[in-house]
């Protein structure tokens, strides 16, 4: 049957549509039913793409059987299956959402917008915040209304770009563009000399303003079940032959709290069969120019479905992740131009996945939860989410109902992710970390590593990916990642608490042509006293090429003790994660950056040098002693930026003050060169050796002058008991220095403390004729070692082409005057003395310029019994 609905219905029970039910255009009609099932050849329609519905069409769902689950689709919803069609086309406003174009003060009822709108009196308007959310663990109950999204109604029809609100705003909203200039941020364009023509130069922190009102409405009845239990309406579509097309639809009082699969809009397993086989994309399915607000369970969920389009929609006041990809198999979907505002985590009892819970280790409920990289995500915005703005969580394997789908999301290539914006969120603006590991939604710290063949990453099949034009502003952290070979291009990061860029792995990554601002002109809210200092980039041991960027308004905050070990970084570049190598040379990768009112970075102090350090603090690890400064960011180009310590100082050193805008002491700038010694293995090569942690033994290094007087000490306690990073123990040595290296707590195979009888250590950056140090190494000197050698193949010193075997001599003086081919066994002090010098034609000749092999040029010293 074909039925034209031209008058209000009675309050129907379950309604099944197997023919065609169409709302008559041009009149106001209400359809009320417990549940509506559209199936087979059935169709429920209002308007069409060519002729949108005129008048008002309202669908109200009223079912009270909260526990029944016919056909696995639940109740109080519009449930589409077996070829059914749900096609609703409202008369959507020409502009669904835009931005302020002038500031709006607290109490303001007049707003000036960026674009002309056709909004009407009585329309429901939402205005995003432009201040910090605060830590994500701040609950909704205590969240300050002045820094949360505000909803108002229009007092009159819009007039061009002007709106009149029925009541004033609670808090100030920023409404002006900012521009980078050679002297700082400005509200007008000025002189700006870019390090590259394509550098981002505009900061947009303007509040988004969206219209929730549509003339086609789906809603739950406002009854006790809704008010007390969050039992709202749902729209669910099953079967690829079915159709869901929304354009200009308003959905309110939606989602069913605590019920899996009961979401405002939900595509359920349209593209995959139960055995994991691919059924094809959901061609023609879309939601456009629509709004979902007041939802107790997410906003739009794409589950096991490919090829859906979500475009130009608004999600507001959502519990749980808002726009959600469920099992990590969802591909080729287009998520474009959407606005998400006010996202909060459900209480734990109503959270259907672990990662949506309040106060989870990686955040809380996010604006966008995306679990497969093969999607197009562009020009979306999110503000006022309790957790991350965008959360990219790419697991090793699919989960839940899609476990049998043969995909590796962790290794799939990335689709377009560009020109998205995240502001005023409780956690990071963007997180690419913390991937699902099971059906419950528990997480693991997994590196996203795309490959050319979507198989496990092996460095030969790696594929680069690009995240372009992202804006993060006023978040509790800008961006955290754990990824291999990303390219970040033309980002804008400003006013974030703590770090603008941070993460782990980052192998082969780049950050280019971006604008990183500490404090912009949007500074009415004081920077929180308990927040970490602002930092531009924590590059994870210089694995990122950071070039052609502008750093602006980033202070050197000086020494700030973190409490759990490690100094907190501040300024443009962070150094408190440079713990892998004793001499860090990765700043070679960071040329052509521009600093405007910005400190290049504070020289973080390792735990064992911090005031009040004792081994009992269990922060037994160290940082790089010397950092090569080829760009001259901290002084004269080509010198080394070292910790201010007698152990590292030489006659060439000068305090780094001249280029530090804040005038804070920032370590030393020394000519060097400095060599790195680390990678200690003790007794590892002996038969029946069971100590697998010898590289974590106490390291006690003394620097001596020519008369054997101590002039500096570097001691890193046992790593076995360290809270973390216990294997990070090494030291930097200056050219011509004299050092003794002892392992005072080392147990031999009989578990009594004794000098080692087998030793290997790495030596880095010793490459030029004349490079040398004199080194006394703690060793069992009761009998002569069987072999002492230096090799340029640390992983296989027996590869003798580039190895120097040393022979015994009778004094340290003889060793000191040698060409590195002698050693002396000092039986009185249990030291083997050697003179470390470069060895022959090295294995690293011909290494890729700028690679680790090229920068660090490793040797190995090995002493054996």
Textual characterization of the structure:
The protein is mainly beta. The protein contains three helices and 70 strands. It has a 27-stranded parallel sheet that branches.
Short account of what is shown:
With 865 residues, the protein is mainly β. The protein is elongated and about 110 Å long.
- What proportion of the residues form beta strands (DSSP E)? 25-35%
- Average per-residue pLDDT, rounded, comes to 92
* Main sheet attributes: strand count, strand direction, barrel closure: 27 strands, parallel
Supply the helix-strand structural class: mainly beta
Distance between the termini: 94 Å
What is the share of helical residues? Answer: under 10%
The helix tally amounts to 3
The number of E-state strands comes to: 70
Low-confidence stretches: 136-142
What shape does the CA trace take? elongated
Radius of gyration, taken over Cα atoms and rounded to an integer in Å = 32 Å
């Amino acid at each position: 049957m074909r039925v034209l609905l031209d008058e209000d219905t009675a309050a129907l029970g379950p309604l099944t549509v197997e023919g065609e039910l169409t709302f008559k255009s041009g009149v106001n009609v209400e359809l009320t039913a417990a549940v509506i099932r559209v199936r087979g050849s059935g169709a429920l329609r209002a308007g069409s793409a060519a002729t949108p519905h005129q008048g008002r069409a309202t669908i109200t769902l009223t079912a009270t059987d909260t526990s029944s689950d016919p056909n696995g689709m639940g109740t109080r919803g519009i449930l589409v299956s077996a070829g059914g069609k749900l096609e609703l086309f409202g008369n959507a406003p020409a502009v669904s959402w835009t931005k302020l174009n002038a500031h709006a003060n607290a109490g303001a009822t007049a707003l000036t917008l960026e674009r002309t709108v056709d909004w009407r009196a009585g329309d429901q308007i939402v205005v995003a915040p432009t201040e910090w959310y605060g830590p994500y663990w701040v609950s909704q109950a205590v969240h300050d209304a002045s820094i949360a999204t505000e909803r108002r109604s229009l007092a009159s029809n819009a007039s061009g770009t002007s709106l009149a609100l029925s009541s004033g705003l609670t808090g100030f909203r920023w409404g002006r563009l900012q521009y980078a200039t050679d002297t700082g941020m400005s509200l007008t364009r000025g002189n700006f000399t870019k390090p590259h023509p394509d550098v981002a130069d505009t900061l947009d922190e303007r509040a988004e303003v969206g219209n929730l009102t549509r003339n086609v409405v789906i809603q739950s009845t406002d009854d006790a079940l809704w008010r007390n239990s969050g039992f709202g309406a749902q729209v669910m579509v099953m079967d690829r032959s079915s159709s869901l097309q929304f354009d200009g639809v308003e959905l309110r009082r939606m989602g069913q709290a605590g019920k899996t699969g009961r979401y405002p809009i939900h595509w359920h397993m349209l593209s995959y069969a139960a055995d994991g086989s691919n059924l094809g994309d959901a061609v023609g399915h879309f939601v456009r120019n629509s709004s979902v607000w007041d939802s107790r369970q997410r906003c739009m969920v794409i589950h096991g479905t490919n090829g859906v389009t979500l475009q130009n929609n608004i999600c507001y006041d959502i519990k749980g992740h808002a726009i959600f990809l469920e099992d990590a198999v969802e591909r080729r979907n287009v998520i474009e131009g959407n606005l998400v505002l006010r996202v909060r985590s459900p209480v734990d009892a109503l959270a259907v996945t672990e990662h949506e819970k309040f106060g989870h280790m990686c955040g809380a409920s996010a604006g966008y939860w995306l679990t497969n990289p093969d999607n197009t995500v562009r020009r979306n915005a999110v503000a006022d989410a309790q957790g991350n703005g965008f959360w990219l969580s790419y697991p090793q394997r699919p989960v839940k109902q899609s476990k049998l789908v043969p995909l590796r999301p962790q290794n799939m290539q990335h689709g377009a992710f560009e020109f998205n914006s995240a502001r005023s969120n409780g956690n990071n603006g963007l997180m690419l970390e913390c991937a699902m590991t099971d059906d419950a939604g528990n997480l693991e710290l997994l590196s996203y590593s795309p490959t050319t063949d979507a198989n496990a990453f092996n460095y030969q099949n790696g594929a680069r990916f690009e995240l372009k034009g992202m804006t993060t502003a006023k978040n509790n952290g800008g961006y955290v990642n754990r990824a291999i070979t990303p390219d970040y291009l033309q980002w804008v990061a400003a006013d974030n608490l703590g770090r603008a860029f941070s993460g782990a792995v980052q192998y082969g990554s780049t950050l280019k042509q971006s604008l990183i601002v500490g404090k912009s002109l949007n500074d009415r809210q004081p920077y929180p006293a308990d927040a970490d200092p602002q930092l531009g980039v924590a590059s994870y041991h210089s694995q990122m090429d950071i070039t052609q960027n502008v750093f602006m308004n980033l202070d050197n905050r000086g020494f700030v003790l973190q409490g759990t070990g490690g100094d907190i970084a501040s300024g443009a570049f962070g150094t408190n994660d440079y713990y892998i190598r004793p001499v860090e040379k990765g700043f070679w990768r960071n040329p052509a950056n521009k600093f405007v009112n910005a400190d290049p970075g504070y020289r973080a102090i390792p735990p064992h040098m911090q005031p009040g350090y004792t081994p009992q603090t269990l922060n037994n690890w160290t940082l790089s002693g010397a950092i090569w400064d080829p760009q001259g960011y901290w002084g004269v180009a080509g010198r080394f930026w070292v910790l201010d310590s007698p152990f590292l100082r030489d006659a060439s050193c000068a305090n780094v003050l001249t280029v530090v805008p804040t005038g804070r002491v920032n370590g030393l700038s020394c000519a060097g060169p400095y060599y790195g010694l680390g990678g200690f293995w003790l007794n590892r090569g002996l038969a029946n050796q069971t100590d697998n942690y010898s590289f974590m033994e106490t390291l006690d290094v003394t620097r001596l002058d020519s008369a054997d007087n101590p002039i500096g000490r570097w001691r890193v306690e046992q790593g076995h008991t360290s809270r973390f990073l216990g294997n990070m123990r090494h030291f930097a040595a200056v050219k011509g220095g004299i050092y003794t290296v002892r392992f005072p707590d080392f147990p031999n195979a009989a578990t009594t403390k004794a000098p080692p009888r087998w030793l290997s250590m790495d030596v880095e950056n010793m490459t030029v004729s004349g490079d040398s140090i004199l080194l006394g190494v703690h060793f069992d000197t009761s009998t002569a070692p069987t072999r002492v050698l230096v090799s340029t193949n640390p992983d296989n010193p027996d590869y003798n082409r580039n190895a120097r075997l040393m022979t015994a001599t009778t004094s340290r003086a003889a060793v000191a005057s040698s060409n590195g081919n002698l050693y002396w066994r000092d039986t009185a002090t249990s030291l083997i003395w050697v003179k470390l010098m470069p060895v022959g034609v090295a294995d690293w000749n011909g290494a890729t310029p700028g690679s680790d092999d090229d920068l660090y040029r490793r040797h190995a010293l090995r002493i054996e019994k």
